[in-house]
Amino acid sequence: MSKSLGLAEKLLKFASIIAHCPKPWRVTLFNRILVALDLSPAGQEVLEKGLSLAKVYGASLLLLHVLSAEEEGSPLPIPVNMDEIYPAVGNELTMEVWQQQWQTFEQEGLDTLEKRRQQALALDIECQAEQILGSPGKIICQRAKQDNSDIIVVGHRGRWGLSEILLGSVGNYVFHHAHCCVFVVPTPD
C-alpha cells in the first residue's frame, strides 16, 4: 500500500503538466522518454520532469537539443548571399564573426547536454544525448518516432492566443504532431 501511495505522490507532482496522448494510444508504462531541451534555465525544469518520469517508470532517456536560429541566445542568421545583397568591405569579416558565434553556440549546446546527461547517469538512469540542426518542432517529432519514444517531455514558455499563432510555439507544434504522448511543462517566459 505504501509503495503505491509513493507512486501516487510522485505522479501528483506532474499535476502542472499538460498531457496529451493520441486517442488510440493507451500507455500504462513508458520505456523510452525523449526530453526536448533548450539552453535556457527553463530547460533544467523540463529535464527534472523527464528525470522524475524516468525514475517512476524505470525508463531510458534521450535528451535532445535542436540547434536553431529561433532559439534565444543563438546568433542572428546572416544571408548566404550577403555580398550580393549589400556589397561592402568587411563582409567576409562579418561572416567569420558569425561562424565563430555559431560554433560557440553549438559547443555551449553540447556542453549543456553533457552536463544534463551526467545528471541522469548520477541517478542511474540510462541516458543518451543528441544535438541536431533544424526546425525544433519537426526534429523533435521525427526523432521521437525514430527512437520509438513512448512520451515526449517539452517546455512551453507561456505564449497563448494571438502571440502563439503569430510567433509559433515548439511545444504547441509537438503537442499536435507527435506520434506519441506529450507532456508539456509550463515554464516562465
Structure, explained:
The protein is an alpha/beta fold. It is built from 7 helices and 6 strands; from the N terminus they run H-E-E-H-E-H-H-E-H-E-H-H-E. It has helices at residues 2-12, 42-57, 82-85, 91-122, 136-146, 161-167, 170-177, and strands at residues 18-20, 32-37, 60-67, 127-133, 151-156, 181-186. A 6-stranded mixed beta sheet has the order 1-6-5-2-3-4, with helices on both faces. Strand 2, helix 2 (42-57) and strand 3 form a beta-alpha-beta unit. The longest helix is centred in the middle third of the chain and has 32 residues, at 91-122. Residues 1-5, 10-17 and 162-167 have low confidence and may be disordered.
Describe, in short, the structure shown.
The chain is of the alpha/beta class. The protein has helices spanning 2-12, 42-57, 82-85, 91-122, 136-146, 161-167, 170-177; strands at 18-20, 32-37, 60-67, 127-133, 151-156, 181-186. It is built from seven helices and six strands.
DSSP strand count: 6
Percent range for β-strand residues: 15-25%
How many alpha or pi helices?
A: 7
Radius of gyration, whole Å: 19 Å
Low-pLDDT segments: 1-5, 10-17, 162-167
Please give the order of strands in the largest beta sheet.
1-6-5-2-3-4
> Which percent range fits the helix content?
40-55%
Q: Could you give the order of the helices and strands?
A: HEEHEHHEHEHHE
> Which word captures the global form?
globular
Tell me the structural class: alpha/beta
Architecture blueprint of SSEs:
Layout: H1 2-12, E1 18-20, E2 32-37, H2 42-57, E3 60-67, H3 82-85, H4 91-122, E4 127-133, H5 136-146, E5 151-156, H6 161-167, H7 170-177, E6 181-186
